[in-house]
Amino acid sequence: MSKDVSIPGSGFHRGPALRMKDALESARKATGALNAAYWIVEKVTGYDRSGIMLRGQTVLPASQSGLLYTLLARIEAGEPLQYVLGTWGFRGLDIHCDRRALIPRPETEQVVDVALEELSKIPGDDLLVADLGTGSGAIALAIAVEGGSKVDGRVLKVVATDISRDALELAAENLEYTVGNRPEIAGMVIFRQGSWYDALDRGDRGRLSMIVSNPPYLSRSQWVSLDPIVLEYEPKVALVGGEDGLECLRVLIGGAIQWLSENGCMVLEIDPLQEEAVVEMAVKVGFGRVLILDDLCGRPRVCVAERHSL
Ligand SMILES: C[S@@+](CC[C@H](N)C(=O)[O-])C[C@H]1O[C@@H](n2cnc3c(N)ncnc32)[C@H](O)[C@@H]1O
């Protein structure tokens, strides 16, 4: 006989007859938000929001109530919603997420906006973009999908790198999935493993139109005081930029000029506290124009460094 099991706090009770509306209510209690509850029930049942609303009294098959139980238990254990759902939206793309890589953040969607805008200004027939520290592949894929229309028929290629083999595996899965829905990006994105510029082909030195990166930029002390949900589940290698948070940014900015083409530019996500240090580094290595843009909360977040004012 199967044993009934309850999830503390969620009101969720594993039993034979779980109606859709009870499933939704259990998910709402476990996640603390109605939107999140719908996403969970959508994943479990395959119905969209209106389908769920229309079927309040429908009893879920045992396989679905079992899956719901498993997902809610993961939420109750403190796992991020994005990992539990397995996909997360990034600029209209469904990005597969799990513990192999950082969950793509809204600030990073803005980095892509800035990168696309800059890319449209760079002259030349072929555009080569390096997304260094690609993680789930979110930036590289968004640039490939959206960049096509921004660059007026010019050839756009993206090389996406990471030091983490796990992250690259996830990014490759995301590429395959995205190409399934957007076949026009087939062949536009390639992956390379290695530390920052070491991952790139030497032949691309001086040829990159753009270097874009959301590198690990938290200091060790910022990292230890993170929300436990981030600390425990998201990879440390994706978050910590050495003792002062600037270690990766030093390498990226320090090496950029020799990899960028004459009119190339660098777009970096930074911590708001790093504004001054990053501008100083970029000016010192010889960028012609350096500016910092705010995120949607008004905090300095994106550094744009152009070799020559475009
Ligand atoms: C903040 S995450 C960004 C992930 C993804 N680009 C995004 O925006 O969601 C930083 C990424 O840099 C990678 N990374 C850390 N150290 C690296 C290194 N030395 N060389 C290349 N990538 C590195 C991490 O594995 C991680 O995927």
Describe the structure in your own words.
With 310 residues, the protein is of the alpha/beta class. The chain has 2 domains: 5-77, no CATH class; 102-306, Vaccinia Virus protein VP39 (Rossmann fold). It contains 12 helices and 11 strands. It has helices at 20-31, 34-45, 49-54, 62-76, 81-85, 106-121, 138-150, 165-181, 220-224, 228-233, 247-259, 275-285, and strands at 5-7, 12-14, 87-90, 93-96, 126-132, 155-162, 189-193, 208-213, 260-269, 289-294, 300-306. The strands form 3 sheets. A 7-stranded mixed beta sheet has the order 7-6-5-8-9-11-10, with helices on both faces. A hairpin with a 5-residue loop joins strand 10 (289-294) and strand 11 (300-306). Helix 1 crosses helix 2 (34-45), helix 1 runs parallel beside helix 4 (62-76) and helix 6 runs parallel beside helix 7. The chain is globular. The chain binds S-adenosylmethionine. The site of S-adenosylmethionine has 24 residues, from helix 7 and strand 6.
Characteristic terms for this protein:
310 residues; 42% helix; alpha/beta; disordered N terminus; 2 domains; Rossmann fold; binds S-adenosylmethionine; 12 helices; two-stranded antiparallel sheet; seven-stranded mixed sheet
Overall helicity: 40-55%
What is the overall shape?
globular
Return the structural class.
alpha/beta
Query: What hetero molecules are bound to the protein chains?
Result: S-adenosylmethionine
What's the CATH class label of the largest domain?
Alpha Beta
Q: Any low-confidence stretches, pLDDT <50, length ≥5?
A: 1-5
